[in-house]
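Section 4.2 – Deliverable D4.2 (structural model, holo form)

The reporting period included a commitment to supply a predicted holo structure for the target in complex with inosine 5'-triphosphate. Inputs used:
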Amino acid sequence: MQLAYTGTGRFGAHDKLRAMRILLATTNRGKVAELRQIMSGKGVELIGLSDSETTEPIETGETFSENALLKANHYYRKSGLPTIADDSGLEVEALKGAPGVHSSRYAGVGADDGARVSKLLEALRDLPNHRRRARFVCAAAIVWGGGQKVVLDEAQGVILQKPRGHNGFGYDPVFLYEPLNKSFAELTASEKAEVSHRGRAFRRLAAWMGQPGVLDTPSSTDRIVTTAD
Ligand code: ITT
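Output (structure tokens):
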């Protein structure tokens, strides 16, 4: 079913109606590209943030879910538009879950993806494959006039000894997705969307949003639902 905005705050299944405008509260270009692909065909028009925005000071929570809601709430208050946000990161078993919610700051503020990947490989140097298990986690949040909702999902893999592939962003070149025997950076955009933490979380969020009347119920008991953290 396609989501369509009727202009009364209600979603309906009528594809003749105009798409609902939703603000996408992320400054990460890699995420923007992936979320546009994941949400395409769902009847929503995603509006991006301006280049001058930053999300770093907003992320004061201790979990992915908290941070996704903080970002979505911040930009909902600023824009008045229904707003979705993603907080995500890499948890490595041998590092007791690090870098986790600090994934984007792992090599310091202002460091690039290459520096983060180098630091990670150094931290795992000489560890055999069975001690390199990791997962990507994504919290997908929406905040609108009637409430808020966050959905958490993950993708499991193994940290490679050295980078492979050039697609994607962040830690993708060192994250081996075993069922396809490819790193996330060796997957096409649509392959990654199919199996990634972000694809899984946002497809579930979109399916929830697509239920009749869900987003126009201010008294909903569904205000915050996390599946794990
Ligand atoms: P926004 O807060 O503006 O959305 P950000 O990059 O700071 O952008 P996060 O705080 O959620 O986003 O940090 C996520 C970091 O985790 C991201 O910068 C990557 O280093 C890593 N990460 C998340 N998803 C990833 C993916 O699909 N592939 C590779 N790395 C990913």
